[in-house]
Design goal:
The chain is built from eleven helices and ten strands. By secondary structure, it is of the alpha/beta class. It is globular and about 75 Å long.
Length: 319
Amino acid sequence: MIRLLLSAFLGIFCLADVGAFAQGYPTKSVRLIVPFAPGGGTDTLARMIAVRLSDELGQSVVVDNRAAVDGIAGSDIVAKSAPDGYTLIIVSSSHAINVALGKKLPYDTLKDFAPITQTASQQLLLVVHPTVPVKSVTELVDYVKARPGKLNYGSSSNAVALPMELFKAMTGADIVHIPYKGSGPMLIDLLGGQVQMAIAGAVASLPHIRAGKLRGLGIGGAQRSAFLPDFPTIAESGVPGYHAVIWTGMFAPRNTPRPIIERLNRGVVRIVQAPDFRERMNKMGSDVVGSTPAQWGKFIEEEIGKWTKIAKLAGMTAE
């Protein structure tokens, strides 16, 4: 009985200490790791959030770029950091795709990070060269099925190759994959007709659609985008259940006190859902999200499961 009482009191004191610590958080600057080079989409978003989160927390939020190995190096730093809320990370879709491709990771993607919120999703567009005589997703599927193995699609990374492989799996279309090292070379060949189609980020492809050099057939999101309201989703255009976007979101190290996670969630959600922030993100080709920690954690699990199946089906593995 004495041992039980002592354990209960110790538990209460520990909870009180955590609560007091969290209530005073933060008392110093917060490091926000971006596991990619400066200037990219994830880095731009992180810097936009960092400025406003500094005001929310009353302490500086400093962006720290740790670009290397598909975001793995930066993620490893966070996974091994103290769970005190002073080291955070904004990740992209590669956080789940690294697992799906079977990469050897120095951390457990699901267990070593505490979800805070999904921040945004960039729409992916299914595009074709104008010489492909189709104007809808349904027409494309019929056209490709009548010519199995005769058409090619280009990809600049696994993050856009897997969504096309998902499209192939859901439609039964036989399209040959032509991988490229970067979006620039892929777009050059797509614009020149050397490859006939691709699923590409909206920011890179939309100017060519507007110029009439590419034809956009649909977006990968589950719902129509505020950024692209006139584009139907692939799901509503003949491929029910299709969903693929490039996403970003924030994590802390596992075991970060719940009150700190909740405070960060409230702050970041308020930031990304502010009308002016939303408008700026829309202009950049993204839709803001702002989910709960539980929703964000579940989303990551589902993404890993979905892309693992597609990677195995397509025979895609880590290089």
